[in-house]
Amino acid sequence: MQSSQIKHFDYIFTGTGLSALMTVYKMVLSGKFNDKSILLLDQNSKQTNDRTWCFWSKNQTIWDSVISKKWDSALFADENFKRDLTLKPYQYNQIRGLDFYSFVFEELLKHSNITFLNEKVTDINELETHVFVGAEENNRYTCDYLFNSIYTKAFAESQTKYPALQQHFVGWFVKSESEIFNPDQATFMDFSVEQKNNTRFMYVLPTSKTEALVEYTLFSEKLLPIEEYENEIQKYLENLGTAKYQILEKEQGSIPMTCFPFWKRNTKRVLNIGTAGGWTKASTGYTFKNADKRSTALVKFIQNEDFEMKDFYKKSRFWFYDLLLLNILYRHNELGSSIFSALFKKGNPRLIFSFLDEETTLFEDFKVIMKCPKLPFIKALFRVLFK
């Protein structure tokens, strides 16, 4: 099948994940792009509940209508202690992927200048005056500016300068016959599971006394056979007091954790966004809050008539903090539990969340960092500075 002509757009988004949809949605809300043609290209039609996002907030957000559950309390645990974390003024929020997609597309479909095509991108080629995009079935498009969120693993994993780990997980949405969950408290990290020389923890998001998302999560370099994740979930549920439950849904994923400078691949007309642009919080794998902030900044940035894509990203000191932690976990993955436990055992949850949101002062940074084990970070600092 041959495409009869090449269709031109002002903006093309290759990949329509979280960051792309947030950006286009905010472009619509701004009212500044009504005269611009926008194409979204993705081989995934976004009609399934393929993931769950969580984020903390202390104010209202534009996403409040799709938050499916909020918690004011969280549990942190390891093999030696448990701590109930009072989150106020923050709340911990859950959004189901399908709810988010439906919410955004409901708005985008109202705008005739926005086109979504369910096609796989096969080629991106930047020229002097425009960007060429090839898709399956020999379909071809051009645009003035392109936003790419298709992640290429090889960029981060084929180099050795910046450690590359994964936050990889398998989750079960379960319904238990017995009441084993506390719907008022999320389990943020439970390191009481066997570590096996890795950073491994359970993550539980309960929606009732009998229903929850239970995830077995690792921060490490290599993925596991699917059976290992599921065996650990099964053991954890038994330890909570139930052997009888239904698995309503399953999810699994692998989120890159790296300080690789993806932004250096940005050019005059092509900007990498989302995970492909380094928008994922490298030290934790959290994506939603970072993407929310970056997409807001991006929409404001491209309203400037003289913008150049390569000027968008600005590196901060928090990138360096993340680099130190990843340097430690890459070399000594077994230290993850002790580092996070030291942080949460006596640390102020409000201050920790603010730090992870990259909203603290230098003095507050120091207060958080001083809770962590000193020697591993001093060694990592020397490795980073003198490598």
How do the helices and strands line up, and which of them pair or pack?
Blueprint: E1 7-14, H1 18-30, E2 38-41, E3 52-57, E4 67-71, E5 73-77, E6 82-86, E7 91-96, H2 97-108, E8 114-117, E9 121-126, E10 131-135, E11 140-148, H3 153-157, E12 164-176, E13 185-190, E14 199-206, E15 211-220, H4 226-240, E16 245-258, E17 270-272, H5 288-301, H6 317-331, H7 336-346, H8 349-356, H9 362-369, H10 374-386
Parallel strand pairs: 1-2, 1-11, 2-8, 5-13, 11-17
Antiparallel strand pairs: 3-7, 4-7, 5-6, 9-10, 10-11, 12-15, 12-16, 13-14, 14-15
Give the key terms.
single chain; 387 residues; alpha/beta
Indicate the low-confidence ranges by residue numbers: none
Structural classification:
alpha/beta
Estimate the helix proportion, in percent.
25-40%
Return the string of H and E elements: EHEEEEEEHEEEEHEEEEHEEHHHHHH
Q: Give the radius of gyration.
A: 22 Å
Instruction: Give the mean pLDDT.
Output: 93
Largest sheet: 7 strands, mixed
- In angstroms, what separates the terminal alpha carbons? 53 Å
The counted number of beta strands is 17
Number of helices: 10
Q: What would the principal axes of the Cα set say about the shape?
A: globular
